[in-house]
Automatic annotation (TrEMBL):
Organism for this UniProt entry: Mycolicibacterium moriokaense
Protein name (database record): 2-hydroxy-6-oxonona-2,4-dienedioate hydrolase
Lineage start: Bacteria, Bacillati, Actinomycetota, Actinomycetes, Mycobacteriales
One Pfam entry name: Abhydrolase_1
Keywords: Hydrolase
Stored PANTHER family: HYDROLASE, PUTATIVE (AFU_ORTHOLOGUE AFUA_2G14860)-RELATED, MONOACYLGLYCEROL LIPASE
């Protein structure tokens, strides 16, 4: 069976040889049936966008996305975690629809925003789970504010090394998408994150394209890219002393196909954190929480619940 599909038809389903049908992946369908809210709150004077699910009286869990990202990075994880936690996924400082401070962003700025957010939601302590940049920020927060962190998850986290080629690639893809947010440039930035390059990730691309089309976002992206500058990155990197100072129970999640660092680097990071648990998810790139949510949610919940 074969059929030539228009672009519109292709956005709904794809008919392949052998009558196999690949359904369109939608952010909305990920959230259908999930009691959640989207809104803004004031975090230390920063208007901060969030997605929230779960009982506000449950223990707090905050998800932090990566460089140039936004809260939708965790749409496939809200439902499972909302059964146990007051679950928040935020647009980090300078990202998404959260306020843009107008200066280069270093890790301490993100940590200050995170602690202000915890204060705004009334959480004296919280579980923090961060991917990429979010993991870097989460680890630094665990060092600087150990009394605020219950359990810590570092998911393909940055902050342990400076690979010049990876840094150049991130800058090139990110600035191309921000300066000219066509479907192709934004999709290239998203596909770089993923292990499966055959998928189009249309709904995530459309969501990010809307973010990048905001007035002034080119300047915001330049500020986000500050941590890819070798000198700025060097003074923000975490070493054995910092990782060794983490007292929160920690899970380090890595993947077989991460484009930023190999499994050995993830294992090295985990080895520096006292008592850290290390897990590798096969068949995933830089977004395992999105690419394989069933496995991620199971691993993640088992750890957070102490199982």
């Amino acid at each position: 069976m074969s059929k030539v599909l228009t672009k519109y038809e292709n956005s709904i389903l794809v008919v392949k040889r052998g009558c196999r049908v690949a359904e369109f992946e939608s952010v909305w369908s990920d959230l259908q049936g999930v009691p959640f809210s989207q809104g803004y709150l004031d975090a230390g004077g920063v208007r901060t966008r969030y997605l929230h699910a779960g009982d506000p009286g449950s223990p707090a869990l905050v998800f932090l996305h990566g460089s140039g990202g936004h809260a939708e990075a965790y749409v496939r994880n809200l439902e499972a975690h909302a059964e146990h936690f007051s679950t928040w996924s935020i647009d980090m400082l300078g990202h998404g629809y959260t306020d843009k401070p107008g200066h280069p962003l270093e890790v301490r700025h993100y940590v200050d925003h995170l602690t202000a957010f915890l204060y705004a939601i009334g959480a004296e302590r919280a579980h923090i789970s961060g991917e990429s940049l979010g993991g870097w920020v989460a680890a630094r927060a665990a060092v600087d504010h150990p009394d605020r962190i219950e359990r810590l998850v570092l998911n393909t986290a940055g902050g342990s090394q400076a690979d010049p080629e990876v840094m150049k690639r991130i800058i090139a893809l990110s600035m191309a998408a921000a300066e000219n947010p066509t479907w192709e440039t934004v999709q290239a930035r998203i596909k770089w994150l993923m292990a499966d390059k055959a998928k189009d990730y249309d709904d995530i691309v459309a969501s990010r394209q809307r973010v990048y089309r905001q007035p002034g976002f080119v300047g915001a992206m330049k500020d986000i890219m500050a941590l890819q500058d070798p000198e700025i990155r060097a003074r923000n990197l975490l070493g054995s002393a910092e990782y060794g100072a983490i007292t929160a129970p920690t899970l380090v999640v890595w993947t077989s196909d991460d484009p930023t660092a190999d499994v050995a680097e993830g294992r090295r990071m985990a080895s520096m954190i006292p008592g850290a648990r290390f897990e590798v998810m096969p068949g995933c790139g830089h977004w395992p929480q999105y690419e394989d949510p069933k496995t991620f949610n199971s691993l993640h919940l088992d750890f957070l619940l102490g199982r």
